[in-house]
Fold this sequence. Notes:
With about 400 residues, the protein is an all-beta fold. About 0% of the residues lie in helices and about 40% in strands. The chain has helices spanning about 5-10, 90-95, and strands at about 10-15, 15-20, 30-40, 40-50, 55-60, 65-70, 80, 100, 110, 115, 120, 130, 145-150, 155-165, 175-180, 185-195, 200, 205, 225, 230, 245, 260, 280-285, 290-300, 305-310, 315-320, 325, 335, 340-345, 365, 370-380.
Amino acid sequence: MRHPLSLVLLCLAVGGSVGCQSGGSMNSTSVEVETWGELDGDRVQRFTLRNGNGMEVDLSDYGAMVTRVQVVDRNGRAVDVVLGFDSIAEYPEKSQYFGCTVGRVGNRIAGDGFDLDGQSYQLAINNGPNHLHGGERGFDKYVWKSTEILTSRGPGVRFTRTSPAGEEGYPGTLEAQATYILTEEDELVIQMSATTDAATPCNIVHHTYWNLGGHGSGTVLDEMLEIDADRYTPVDATFIPTGELASVDGTPLDFRNGKTIGSDFGAFPGNGDDPGGFDHNLCLNGEVGVLREVATLSDSKTGIVMTISTDQPGIQFYTGNFLNGMTGKGGAEYQKNGALCLETQAFPDSIHHQGEPGWPDVVLKPENTYGHVMVHRFSTEGIATSESE
Length: 389
Ligand code: GLA
């Protein structure tokens, strides 16, 4: 039974952790917090959001990340659909940006820097000859400040961090926020925002690895994907966009009518350091800045469907090509292509294409606020199967 949030929410202090939950039922709306461990002397917390439908989301203040999303499948079973690790200590060692908030600039910047307002800024080269995901120590490798929140849409956590001027070579002090809310409509809403005191590139990206068959359940090649994008940004051998905004027509990147991920997978074979597979930015249709439905992913085994809406211009579709069989939560094996990321974003390397037609403006100025919304809505399709099937 679903309860109107405003009528039933009670805030409780339980065993040193603060939780807010509706009276009584097991599947109540709540947010709970616990100490998960310690990293470099900093306490790391884990939060659990619950809604009234059995959906649960675990978050951590390390990297402002998602570590578990439990969804009820078409047979009523709880399935954890994201990759992660049991202990916080494994994240710095093994994680490939699992579930985290990437910043200050997600994805790649060509070479070792950029010019802005007549000044050159030097960045770390940490991916081949390029800069990736904010540098050596990006937003994903810090413990953020956190506040549990109860909104009219559901329980959540707001994470904030101050990125000082000069951090990883970027100009301006950036005040960043990442807020997660689990709604009674089975949506995981992610709102990212930032302000700065000097002009800086800014592209904060959410990096969960999804497998709607359940984490560790094999590859995602049989999952169905639809992406509303007429164009994509072709890349060179080091994954840097060439500058062209090419049509997806007749290419393996045409997901407009939906197809299984495996159907054209062979078009991107491995080659040397490139493990092959999809790792492409698609240019989303519709008006930038307006929240619109852009992608749908579904798994025929569980019947779980995830629809993504965003206000962003692009989406990085990445098929976990660098996953290497590492051991994840509960001993699960995360094999190559065992999950996928759908990272809404400004196009990679946009800072080198400012003012070019069709390219997003990624320079945040002190008079503006950066905003980025993602809504992941979960549902199921298909007819329940009996246990024996
Ligand atoms: C993004 C990039 C990939 C890879 C992953 C993290 O999706 O596009 O090339 O770096 O992040 O492993």
